[in-house]
Amino acid sequence: MSEWGIALIAAGSAILGSIVTGFFAWKAGHRQAAAAEAAGQAQAAALISTVQATLDEQRRTRADERRRQVYADMLTAVTDLQRHRDDHDALTRALRAHDLVVLEGPDDVAQVAMTFIVRARGLEGVAAASAEELVDARRAYIDAAILALRDLDDR
After folding, report:
1. Do 149 and 71 touch, CB atoms closer than 8 A?
2. CA-based Rg of the chain, rounded to a whole angstrom?
3. Are 98 and 74 in contact (CB under 8 A)?
4. What is the pTM of this model?
5. Which of 66, 55, 79 is nearest to 149 (CA)?
6. Cα 132 to Cα 41, 78, 119, 136, distances in angstroms
7. Closest to 149 measured CA to CA, from 106, 112, 113
8. How many CB atoms lie within 10 A of CB 132?
9. Contact 43, 53 (CB under 8 A)
10. pLDDT-derived band of residue 50, with 50, 70 and 90 as boundaries?
11. Of 151, 73, 85, 83, which Cα lies nearest the Cα of 113?
């Protein structure tokens, strides 16, 4: 073989080697890019999940606090009604507080709250309760509210 033939074979081998090496480097680069993209998407999904969990917990905390406040406002309104049984505004405040308890729920707390109002004021043809019955009605309301709030905490 002549020198030209050997030179052409060597040059062809070098070019072919470069092409093969370049192809495998290109494939490896694409695999690394795909792996980096998958890792980035997994990291973004984890971050979104964490943010969503934080927002859900904050929303739940605000709802729980709102319910506690509604229950406390109901207790305050009925206590005021006890002191001022003939005051129409006190009755109105107690009934509005009861409406909020109905909205917040659960139903058993709302029912006990209405019983508390009836006992404190004497509504619907029912005379106002004795001091002992009033204490019992107050205690029943507080117990129902505590139970409902504990159910919230157990979620």
Report:
1. yes
2. 37
3. yes
4. 0.65
5. 66
6. 65, 16, 10, 6
7. 106
8. 8
9. no
10. very high
11. 73
